[in-house]
Amino acid sequence: MLILGSGDVHRVLDGAETEVVAAVRRAYRLHDRGRTALPHSVFLRFPDDPRNRIIGLPAYLGEDEPVAGIKWIASFPGNTACGLERASAAVILNSMVTGQPEALLEGSVISARRTAASAALAAAALGSSVPETGVSLIGCGVIGFEILAYLRAVLPDLAAVTVFDLDRSRAETFADRCRARWPALKTEVAQSAEETLAAHRLVCLATTAAAPHLTTDACRPGTLVLHVSLRDLTPESILSVVNVVDDADHVCRESTSLHLAEQLCGNRDFIDTSIGSVLNPEEPFRRREDRVTVFSPFGLGTLDLALADLVRRRAEPLGLGTWAPDFLPEPAGAAFG
User: Molecular function terms in GO for this entry (predicted)?
Assistant: First the structure.
């Protein structure tokens, strides 16, 4: 068993935005072609504790060298008040020959980077005729910062960001981090969510909201909303926009905004296309300039596998990680010669 901690994962993925986006693109294309196995994620919730949860995302990614495994990720929003990250995770990769676990990786970095790469890939693939020069970001946490980093990697014209968080001090701290990392990026803190939604035609929602609290009314025509946190927009708003998802069966669950929209209208006809189809060069997609387009990614486990496998393959020749040769029991009879 190869164990790769946070430092090992960072060493492989830091500065590798191009490779990460390519891995996410490949995973989406394979899913669109039916080359994946993706059971529904398992949500472990706790009696009298609706805010916290742990999610299991098992998946199989079929390539020349296929990958199978699971991400086990906990979301405890109260951690931030204690100076801890909201999410913590582990990824296990299994052998496709024996089924035995082969690698254990720290998963929160992988999860954040695949989420950011997915959002950035959608922003590029769902581009408009006018280059994006600014982004509005609601939710000033780890995921929001990673998304901004990846958006800058794929959108060369991005020159401004407007941020908002219900916690004003959190937004100010986030803005200071942005100014320190990207001095040339014009960074502003908005006074309200509505002001933020109206500031640019590219909007990212990366909050910890458990129930809808926003509409798209303040968005300009032609705006693309990256609805990463899935529960921010009212179902009525979802029914009024052009909807792009990663997988309709997965995203219409667990009281997401799209799940509530499905319950409201009784069908999924409001979903226009998937990101896998958008990435198909034979089916070009151009976002509407007269309507708001919303990308709602459930966060497929295949993306985590794609990045975990990338980390494992890059880490081994670099000598990263710790080997635990006695992690698994000896074969039956081995101890007796």
Answer: oxidoreductase activity, acting on the CH-NH2 group of donors, NAD or NADP as acceptor
Within 10 Å of residue 231's Cβ, how many Cβ atoms? Answer: 22
3.30.1780.10, 3.20.20.70, 3.30.70.20, 3.40.50.1360: which CATH number matches 2-110+301-323?
3.30.1780.10
Best CATH choice for the domain 126-296 from the list 3.40.50.720, 3.40.718.10, 1.10.3720.10, 3.40.50.620: 3.40.50.720
For 91, the token pair is 């990824």
Chunked into runs of 10 residues, the chain (337 residues) has average pLDDT values of: 97 97 96 95 92 95 92 92 90 96 97 97 91 95 96 96 96 98 98 98 95 97 97 98 97 96 98 95 83 97 97 96 93 61
